[in-house]
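Sequence design from tokenized structure. All designs in this work follow the same two-part layout: the structure record, then the generated sequence. An example of the structure record is given first.
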């Protein structure tokens, strides 16, 4: 029995030793370069519909240089450019016919800036558009790094937060309507009646100025969503009815920021 035990142990050691030498690196050629179409949106010369025409993809990432959104994983999506210029669109894919990631790129030409609007989806066709903090679970996330909910992920929001509205208009006009009270993080996470709101608020927009080259808005005079956030808000995504923003924590005592908010807003209907 001892001899069989010794042989078994030796074989086990040999097997483990062989496993350690196994080469798990990817071999072979890259997948075929993906094919995609770019079609201008009728009546909107600053928007384009992109569609992945290739097959066999199990992972897909669009990269829109200076576009809105900045990236997408959808098979078909619409990208918007607010400024005149030439822009590159890239599609990266991982597919079943190769190892690794392949990409293709095309360029689009935008002839003119969007007239009268700083930002298409922030406003309602160049008129005022209002947003409220999402009451869904995860509407507010807080963490030490961008996009993280490690420190806190909201199950919901309190009524005082739910009825606040942040409204964007043309020419940099910005309004904050708190319906009489605001939820103050800096005063002990309480409702504050007659919260002071400056009479003149403005917002500015800058392409690719934020984290990970996200487009950025800067709000002067007030915060957006959570009192100890801002003053810069990077646009993770924005559509007709939903907007996600990334903002640094702004400690109430003026200390340097030590984390990030991910905030989700819904269009006020």
């Amino acid at each position: 029995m001892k001899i069989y035990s010794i042989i078994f142990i030796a074989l086990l050691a040999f097997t483990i030793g062989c496993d350690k030498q196994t080469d798990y690196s990817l071999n072979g050629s890259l997948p075929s370069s993906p094919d995609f179409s770019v079609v201008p949106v009728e009546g909107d010369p600053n928007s384009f519909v992109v569609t992945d025409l290739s097959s066999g993809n199990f992972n897909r990432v669009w990269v829109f240089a200076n576009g809105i959104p900045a990236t997408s994983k959808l098979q078909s999506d619409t990208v918007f450019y607010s400024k005149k210029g030439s822009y590159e669109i890239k599609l990266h894919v991982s597919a079943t016919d190769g190892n690794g990631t392949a990409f293709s790129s095309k360029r689009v030409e935008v002839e003119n800036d969007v007239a009268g609007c700083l930002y298409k989806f922030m406003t309602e066709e160049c008129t005022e558009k209002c947003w409220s903090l999402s009451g869904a679970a995860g509407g507010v996330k807080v963490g030490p790094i961008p996009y993280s909910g490690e420190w806190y992920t909201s199950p919901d929001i309190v009524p005082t937060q739910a009825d606040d509205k942040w409204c964007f208009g043309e020419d940099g006009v910005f309004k904050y309507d708190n319906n009489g009270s605001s939820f103050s993080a800096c005063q002990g996470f309480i409702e504050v009646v007659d919260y002071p709101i400056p009479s003149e608020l403005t917002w500015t927009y800058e392409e690719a100025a934020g984290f990970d080259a996200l487009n950025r808005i800067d709000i002067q005079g007030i915060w957006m969503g959570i009192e100890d956030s801002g003053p810069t808000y990077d646009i993770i995504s924005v559509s007709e009815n939903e907007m996600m923003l990334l903002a640094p924590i702004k400690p109430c005592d003026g200390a340097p920021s030590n984390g990030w908010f991910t905030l989700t807003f819904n269009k006020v209907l």
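Helices lie at 2-20, 159-162. We note this feature because it recurs in several other targets discussed in the main text.
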